[in-house]
Specification:
Layout (H helix, E strand, L loop, with lengths): L1 H28 L20 E7 L4 H9 L9 E5 L12 H11 L4 E4 L11 H10 L7 E3 L5 E5 L8 E5 L7 E7 L1 E3 L3 E3 L1 H6 L8 H6 L12 H19 L3 E7 L22 E5 L2 H14 L2 H13 L4 H8 L6 E6 L5 E3 L1 H4 L12
Parallel strand pairs: 1-12, 2-3, 2-7, 3-4, 7-10
Antiparallel strand pairs: 1-11, 5-6, 8-9, 10-11, 12-13
Length: 361
């Protein structure tokens, strides 16, 4: 009897230890967000390789085409152009005439690709979304709302928040993707570049975007913020660019840069940051980093609003996390397409910018 009692006591102790160890392991494995998303890292403090980023001051269809043609070598097969098509009458989206000219010249047979929104509004359902597309003039080529029918998951390699991400099922119908991005501020992300365009823009409207934005059981739809939000969004992006491999490229248009995202439409904050130009690269980190560097290289008056938006939202964590995940380089050569392919600094690129004035669509 004593032997049985001793065995039961030992068994209980072992079970207690296992439970304790299991709880400790679970606590250790719970993801912890990084820090310093509000701290800008100067170029000279960065390490690692350098990528190439092309730059033109020509904010026009011609400038867009010139930038794209420098980075389209691996864009083959069926092409999806990931574009933020905007809320109804959105004043700051990339001009449709520029996109039409680009697609007619260089992306014949391509589709604009989008997903429905996570918030209720004019792009929340596919029917409403299609009406908004008509209002905004996206009628010159097919627009594929990728989560119109279903969703699929893509693996997130090396992610700490996700092992997979839910995206619109039509994404897998494409061989290549062009991320054509209006670079601007963002209410939650601090800034919206290629990373935001893909990470939020390809996640489907009901599942993927909820995983990125909301802790389950919370009343606040947007409770995930700052560094954790940047990391979740970036992991979503990684799932998509890993899917396309070398068959993805990036073009960022630095024009009409409100601190508000295009998802705010006519309610966006007035633009006070000068227009800069168009950048292109095959490196997603390098192009978003270059855009941020151009903002920081402006005068204090020129960049005050945008820097405040980026830093208060801890948006710079997008860049550091992309580097941690091996998504690209934060060092680059900036090549001036307006001056024979000369390498220039960001300070030279933003020298003598003109104050912003409203331009036509």
């Amino acid at each position: 009897m004593k032997t049985i009692i001793k065995c039961l006591i030992l068994l209980a102790m072992c079970n207690s230890m296992l439970i304790s160890c299991g709880s400790k392991k679970t606590a250790e494995e719970k993801p912890v967000a990084g820090t310093d998303g509000n701290k800008y890292v100067p170029y000279e403090e960065r390490t690692g390789g350098e990528s190439v980023v092309y730059f033109t001051r020509k904010l026009s269809a011609e400038g867009l085409i010139a930038a794209y043609e420098k980075v389209n070598g691996n864009i083959t097969g069926k092409v999806g152009v990931k574009l933020h098509t905007g809320e109804p009458h959105g004043p700051n989206i990339i001009p449709r005439e520029w996109v039409k000219a680009l697609m007619e010249k260089d992306i014949k047979g391509g589709n604009i690709i989008e997903t429905n929104t996570y918030y209720e509004g004019d792009r929340y359902t596919t029917d409403k979304h299609r009406e908004t597309l008509k209002v905004n003039g996206w009628t010159f080529c097919p627009v594929d709302i990728m989560d119109e029918e279903d969703t699929v998951t893509l693996p997130v390699k090396g992610g700490k928040w996700f092992k997979k991400m839910s995206v619109g099922s039509h994404l897998k119908n494409y061989n290549s993707m062009v991320a054509l991005t209006h670079f601007k501020g963002h209410t939650q992300g601090g800034f919206g570049g290629s990373n935001k365009n893909i990470g939020i823009g390809c996640a489907d409207g009901r599942i993927g975007k909820a995983w990125i934005h909301t802790t389950p059981g919370q009343d606040d739809q947007w409770d995930i913020k700052e560094e954790e939000f940047m990391e979740r969004m970036t992991e979503s992006t990684k799932s998509v660019i890993d899917f396309f491999g070398k068959h993805v490229t990036y073009v960022n248009v630095m024009r009409n840069m409100s601190v508000s995202c295009d998802c705010e439409g006519v309610a966006a904050e007035p633009v006070v940051t000068p227009n800069v130009g168009i950048l292109s690269s095959t490196d997603i980190l390098a192009i978003d980093q270059a855009c941020v560097d151009l903002i920081y290289a402006m005068t204090a008056d020129e960049h005050k609003a945008m820097v405040e938006r980026i830093e208060t939202r801890h948006g710079l964590r997008q860049l550091s996390y992309m580097k941690e995940l091996g998504m690209g380089n934060n060092r680059y050569k900036l090549i001036d397409l307006d001056n024979g392919g000369k390498e220039i600094t960001v300070a030279e690129a933003v020298k003598n910018l003109k104050p912003f004035v409203t331009t036509g669509k």
